[in-house]
TrEMBL record:
Gene3D superfamilies: Cytochrome c-like domain. One of its GO terms (molecular function) is metal ion binding. It comes from the Bacteria. It comes from Novispirillum itersonii. This is Cytochrome c55X. The keyword Ribonucleoprotein does not apply. Residues 25-106 form the Cytochrome c domain. Keywords: Heme, Iron, Metal-binding, Signal. Residues 1-22 form the signal peptide. Pfam families: Cytochrome_CBB3.
Length: 107
């Protein structure tokens, strides 16, 4: 006989996993994304995100731009420009978190 509490815990785990794609990245993943942002994105957009080969990505520069438009650019890249598609490396929740970092945290 399986204790009822174990069944409930199992169900909760199943539910959490089912919604994992929409949830925030784990703490470890967030740390990786912060490094990616400064090192990989920063190599083109500037370490302080004030622009370089890529356009400025400061909170100021992105004000007025829609999250969904930014997410599409990050996921699919910009054909004809050096901005690469990150979709193969980043999940949708990773990309949402990067946009959150761009808007909310100073470089
Ligand atoms: C190889 C260089 C390169 C790398 C690496 C790069 N970008 Fe870009 N990015 C560009 C260029 C070039 C543009 C287009 C600038 C323009 O419009 O002239 C761009 C445009 C963008 C835009 C649209 C900006 C706007 O104002 O519409 C966003 C958002 C963006 N990049 C985010 C990122 C993120 C996040 C990363 C890291 C995951 C990243 N980029 C990595 C070169 C790069």
């Amino acid at each position: 006989m399986i204790p009822r509490r174990a069944v409930v815990a199992g169900l909760l785990t199943a539910l959490t996993c089912a919604t994992a794609t929409a949830a925030e990245p784990s703490a470890a993943r967030k740390a990786e994304l912060a490094i990616l942002l400064s090192q990989d994105c920063g190599s083109c957009h500037g370490l302080t995100r004030h622009g370089g080969l890529g356009s400025p990505l400061t909170a100021e520069a992105l004000r007025g731009q829609d999250d969904s438009v930014l997410a599409t650019v990050i996921r699919d890249g910009l054909p004809g420009k050096p901005m690469p598609p990150w979709g193969p490396l980043l999940s949708d929740s990773d990309i949402d978190w990067l946009i959150h970092l761009l808007r909310e945290t100073p470089p």
